[in-house]
Amino acid sequence: MKRYSAFTLFLLLVFSVGTLGAQSSVNELKARLRKAQTKNEKMQLGYDLAQALMSARNYTEAADQAYSAYELAIQLSEKRIASDAVFLSGDAQYRRRKYAEATARFVEAWNTARNYGHRDVALQSAEKLMAINKDQKNLSEALKWSQEMIGYLQDNTGRSGGSGDVARRLESQIAALEAENRSLREQIAQATGQTEVLETTYKQQMQQVEALTKEEISKREAEFSEGRRQADSLVTVKNRLLKTMTEGQMVDSMIKAQQEREIQTQKTLAAEADAARQKSESARNFMLMLSSMVLLVAGLFYLLYRSKNRTAVELSQKNKIIEDEQKKSDELLLNILPPAIAQELKTKKKVAARKYDDATVMFVDITGFTQLSEQLGPEQLVAELDYCFTSFDHIIGQYRIEKIKTVGDAYICASGLSDKNASPTDMVKAALQIQDFLLHLKAQRMSQGLPCFEARVGIHTGPVVAGVVGEKKFAYDIWGDTVNTAARMEEACVPGRVNVSEDTYWKSKYEFEWQPRGKVAAKNKGLMDMYYVTAVIGAKY
């Protein structure tokens, strides 16, 4: 007995030390994650933290950390960590018994692992999905996932002809899954048979209810017939009573008629007395009318005073509304034009054109837009374009960049205008951030099986003329050869890259990593030196 107690205490001590060690590991990883600077560090530390939280049985936080690591891995194209992290997130939800959330994560892990060629994660995800549906008694869905695993294994068996052992292992796995398939089909067939028995029993019960209902209706009809016979007998008795009315009752009726005539005569006399009394009250009524007129005039003067005060209040409120509308108008004008241009337009009713010698112009053009418009409806297509362009607005808003306009699926912006931001560095950083956003959006859409698109980006630095033309529908625009050259940079770019001219390259050379392209033919420009921007120096992607 003493040996058993000592052994139990030893096990408790080991478990306590392990728990404290896991908790200290979790706290250490959380501290390191808060200090992480790059996406790569956040991804790796988030995945390690999720594993530590699983060991500490903190499944809720483990699921969230694993899914955050999965999203970062998709952005950084870390395929293996992406597959493992989303599977780990689903496993944490499964242990929490959140089967709906676990099913969604395992399906995402299944698709991700298949796309990236991680067979082990794909099979584990399918096994989990099959187990969840069996636990939930959803045998048809479990059978579907069993068939998915068989098809996936058969496809891999056909491609792996180099190793006999591997082929035999795959064949044994397929055989086991086919046996599981047969078992599920038998269970479904048994469940179907039980359903047919229940339907037969239900029909028999309905027939019994119908028979009882008909019997009850017959009883109610018999009771109704008896009630009618009793009512007819009462009518017969009443008629007999009327016929046997005595002579004394008829005399009483005549006396009552005489009394009613006397009452009518008294009413006539009372009405004449009322008329005389009304004549005597005419003088009093005249005085009352005169008093009412005086009160009415006083009331009118009071209403006039109240109306004047109310008019003053309404005028004040309308002035406040006019001021608010003027403020909205000013904000709308500032949303369309730069502040200096908007102020000049309000003051002088016209804007003089200005020349800027060191402006940087960027063209962003969505590729595959025509094919995408054939796959989506008009409302959905405009919603997708609005989502992208709104995100672009937020990105360039972080830098001193002015949005010029959008033309169809093209987005145009410029820096170095009214705020004298002559360096193209901010523009190049914004372009890289736009491509990162589109890359993440593409990965997200592809994982959901939705259409996606990419963009070409071209940048050039040089002189432009900016201003507002016309008197209606004001639009701030830029002109010059620099705008045309930026458009040629975008046309010569491949989707997913940022292409800049030689002028932009020399003015931001030491802040980015470059890929020289040499001389590339440009429309109406001839051969021009072009460069791809690959990354910001020192940044980790």
What would you note in describing this structure?
Helix 2 runs antiparallel to helix 3 and helix 4 packs parallel to helix 6. The radius of gyration is 45 Å and the shape is flat. 72% of the residues lie in helices and 13% in strands. By secondary structure, it is an alpha+beta fold. The protein has helices at residues 2-35, 39-55, 59-76, 79-95, 99-116, 119-135, 139-159, 164-243, 247-280, 282-336, 339-348, 369-375, 378-397, 425-447, 481-491, 502-507, and strands at 354-367, 401-407, 410-415, 454-468, 476-479, 498-501, 512-522, 526-536.
Quick synopsis:
The protein has 541 residues and is α+β, with helices and mostly antiparallel strands. 72% of the residues lie in helices and 13% in strands. The protein contains 16 helices and 8 strands.
**What fraction, in percent, of the residue positions are helical?**
over 70%
C-alpha Rg, in Å? 45 Å
Oligomer: single chain
Percent strand equals 5-15%
Q: Kindly name the structural category.
A: alpha+beta
Morphology call: flat
Number of helices: 16
Largest sheet: 8 strands, mixed
Could you report the average pLDDT, rounded to the nearest whole number? 80
Taken in chain order, the helices and strands follow as: HHHHHHHHHHHEHHEEHEEHEHEE
Question: What is the strand and helix layout of this fold?
Answer:
Elements (H helix, E strand, L loop, with lengths): L1 H34 L3 H17 L3 H18 L2 H17 L3 H18 L2 H17 L3 H21 L4 H80 L3 H34 L1 H55 L2 H10 L5 E14 L1 H7 L2 H20 L3 E7 L2 E6 L9 H23 L6 E15 L7 E4 L1 H11 L6 E4 H6 L4 E11 L3 E11 L5
Parallel strand pairs: 4-6
Antiparallel strand pairs: 1-3, 1-4, 2-3, 4-5, 6-8, 7-8
Helix pairs in contact: 1-2, 2-3, 2-4, 3-4, 4-5, 4-6, 5-6, 6-7, 7-8, 13-14
